[in-house]
Structures
1.
Amino acid sequence: MYDDGTALMPVDAMYVWAVISFGLGLSLASYHWFARRNNWSMGEVQAHHVSIAVFIGICAMIPALLFAAARWQEFGGWSIPLVGLALGLFFTAILRFYSQISLFLAPMAAVMLSFIWYMR
């Protein structure tokens, strides 16, 4: 608690990891389509092994969707896919670099979400 009587607002780590996992997974799964349509550069996996990138992206989105379904009404889990969609579009359209690095970050975020969720 601060001196003026206001309290710190706790951060829901699982919510944050779910949004990141969904956003990065969506960005990874959809980047090839956006890149071909807009003539953006693609990495090796995005250009020649699209099914691997889409598979990793979908696998990163699944724990986030399961977590959102588990918290749907009680804690605003319905906002996880919405905020994740906005984050995924931001990663894909503005920060194209994250669509490439999502090959590593999306599975890491999904593992972190799953680990924290399992430990609770």
2.
Amino acid sequence: MYVVSLKRVVNCLGEQLKDEEQYFEYFQYDNYAGVHSTGYPCFGSLTHAKKFNSVEEAKETFERNLKDLKLTENIANFDVSTLAVRKITFHSKAKLKWS
């Protein structure tokens, strides 16, 4: 699985985030706010990130939505150098018991 991500460096109040407060947001569609949903592309939490089966699919979808993203997102809130397709991977770190 792959996602498109971008690091947020300015909060919703327009305040610069300290390095340790910065975080990644992920490409998605605004479909999770009930009647207030717009359906437009945006960036948000990993929970609602659009997941792709290939790097090519992620790139094509992002490029197809770039015009609308430029209308819905203030790019000054992000570090554009971090814009990338990223692979989601999981690694076991500790065994657990079911008892």
